[in-house]
Amino acid sequence: MYFIVQVTLALFLGYLILNFFINTLFLSPSLSKIIQLCLVFNFNFYFGKTISYKKR
């Protein structure tokens, strides 16, 4: 169950970040994708640590 929540939040967060960088800040799509991947990776890392701590 926690995995499904994490995946859904990460996909939604990634879409919002990409949309914000391309449409609002007018960054190039490739640069926006690199920033998005870094931010979503960090989100997954910290969210995963929080969930694994709560399951103990």
Automatic annotation (TrEMBL):
Annotated transmembrane regions: 7-28
Keywords from the named record: Membrane, Transmembrane, Transmembrane helix
Protein name, entry field: GtrA-like protein domain-containing protein
Lineage, top ranks: unclassified sequences, metagenomes, ecological metagenomes
